[in-house]
Specification:
Blueprint lengths: L6 E6 L3 H12 L4 E7 L2 H11 L3 E4 L8 H7 L7 E6 L5 H6 L4 E4 L4 H14 L4 H20 L4 E6 L2 E6 L3 E7 L2 E6 L3 E4 L3 H7 L5 E5 L2 E4 L3 E6 L4 E6 L4 E5 H11 L2
Parallel strand pairs: 1-2, 1-3, 3-4, 4-5
Antiparallel strand pairs: 6-7, 6-10, 8-9, 8-12, 9-10, 11-12, 13-14, 14-15
Helix pairs in contact: 2-3
């Protein structure tokens, strides 16, 4: 019976304690080989070139060249899988947009780390040709993203960050400082304020129907008057919103009703 080769892993963090904790957790996971460590971005690039790891656990905030600088400097067919490990969740969207395989919040629990490793292992490509093709696709996607609204958005469910297709999102709803993302099966927590999300989705199928709600107009099933001033808007997942007559007029205009 043959076993897959160990997942060669590089840990990049400017804090020695953080590196030690990650090393101890990784060394307890079967099939993982901690190939090395780096304490800043430039050292990380040197180690990646020298060690050719399969996986890099990368902190974002480091002196000199930061984590995004490292990601941007990686080129060629031997680019490893990048997993961002940080204390801040506001960088999740950019991390996924730049190709991160996963996004972990410190302190990282062992169970979450094991799931991350398995996810990376399952996504490993068959070789340089696949990696080269992926690089070409990422470049094309970057050019397309500059000229069009995003097609995906990051949502948090429990401890995990998910990359969601906007076509599957029914609505964004603000509840105090939290913005919830509704899909047919789950409700995710957004990583950005509603105002920022609306700006990013300008020109898309999403419309603001309430000061606290942004809905996918492609999922509007019906609108019915409740009174002379209020209407009930229902999405095709049966999610309902009460909107003003003025807002209904805006929605009708967007839908060409």
């Amino acid at each position: 019976m043959s076993f897959p080769p160990p997942l060669r892993t590089l840990i990049v963090d400017d804090e020695p304690i953080a590196r030690r904790i990650l090393r101890e957790e990784l060394e307890s996971i079967p099939g993982v080989d901690v190939a090395g460590e780096a304490e800043d971005g430039r050292q990380a690039l040197e180690q990646i070139r020298r060690l050719e790891p399969d996986l890099v656990l990368l902190d974002l905030q480091m002196p000199g060249l930061d984590g995004f600088g490292v990601i941007g400097a990686l080129t060629g067919p031997a680019v490893p899988s990048i997993v961002v490990v940080t204390a801040y969740d506001q960088h999740a969207i950019r991390a996924f947009e730049e190709g991160a395989a996963d996004y972990l919040l410190k302190p990282v629990g062992r169970e979450r780390l094991v799931r991350c490793v398995e996810r990376v292992r399952s996504r490993r490509g068959p070789g340089p040709a696949a990696a080269e093709a992926l690089a070409r696709l990422q470049t094309a996607a970057a050019h397309a993203a500059a000229a069009a609204p995003p097609r995906r958005i990051v949502g948090k469910l429990g401890e995990e960050y998910h990359l969601l297709d906007l076509a599957d999102v029914f609505a964004f709803q603000a509840d105090g400082d939290t913005v919830w993302i509704s899909t047919r099966k789950n409700r995710f927590r957004a990583t950005q304020p509603l105002k920022v999300i609306q700006e990013k989705l300008a020109g898309s199928t999403f419309g603001r129907i309430h000061r606290n709600a942004l809905v996918n107009l492609a999922h509007v099933a019906k609108m019915a008057p409740l009174s002379s001033k209020r209407w009930l808007l229902t999405l095709d997942n049966q999610q309902e919103f009460i909107v003003s007559k003025r807002q209904v007029a805006e929605v009708q205009k967007l839908l060409n009703w």
